[in-house]
Specification:
Distance between the termini: 65 Å
Structural class: mainly alpha
Radius of gyration: 22 Å
Number of domains: 2
CATH class of the largest domain: Mainly Alpha
Strand order of the largest sheet: 1-2-3
Helix content: 55-70%
Length: 196
């Protein structure tokens, strides 16, 4: 390290463990209907280098990382691996200084948007996959999604229909195509479950 400073690797190690624990406990407590697989997927979608580096960029953590001349010249302050490791080191340091009372709220505040995005993404995946599996069990064809949009470019709204064969079996809407498809798949799944 430059100037004889210690490496952050030990703090990264601790911070990674603390981060995994805080996120695991949070999704366990907030996603009450979720099974182990879904909880694991949620944790993985938050506790990864890309997500952590994006949070580190948001708080401009790279400005405060001590790097050697070569790493600085090579753009190290914006490297995903360096930023994610630095954020884990911060979590480790906060845990050592203030314990779980300090680090838990910090992690949840910084990762709030990432957690919301992860939940929405997992929900989207689950509904479409669940519908496809249900249709396969019934011997029905795979679903397709018909999308329509309305509104100006800066305020688009999307409407989706889930189509099986030639029949619409669910509809949904949202501010993105994915959100509309998620809602349509969910409606189709629930309708088919109710009506056989």
């Amino acid at each position: 390290m430059p100037g004889g400073h210690d490496s952050n690797e030990r703090l990264e190690f601790l911070g990674d463990a603390v981060l995994g624990w805080v996120v695991a406990e949070h999704v366990f407590r907030t996603q009450l209907g979720s099974n182990e697989g879904r909880l694991t997927d949620l944790r993985k979608s938050v506790v990864n280098a890309t997500a952590l580096a994006n949070v580190a960029r948001d708080i401009e953590l790279g400005r405060f990382v001590l790097l050697g001349k070569g790493e600085t010249a090579g753009g190290g302050r914006d490297k995903t691996s360096i930023l994610s490791d630095a954020l884990e080191a911060v979590f480790g340091a906060v845990y050592l200084d203030g314990g779980s009372v300090a680090v838990g709220p910090l992690i949840l505040r910084l990762l709030d948007g990432v957690l919301d995005t992860a939940v929405n993404a997992i929900d989207h995946f689950d509904h479409k996959t669940a519908l496809q599996e249900l249709l396969a069990q019934r011997g029905d064809p795979a679903p397709t999604y018909a999308i329509e949009e309305a509104g100006p470019d800066h305020e688009k709204h999307f409407f989706a229909r889930t189509v099986v064969g030639m029949q619409t079996v669910g509809t949904g809407e949202g501010r993105s195509k994915k959100q509309a498809e998620q809602q349509a798949a969910r409606a189709a799944y629930e309708s088919l479950q109710r009506n056989g």
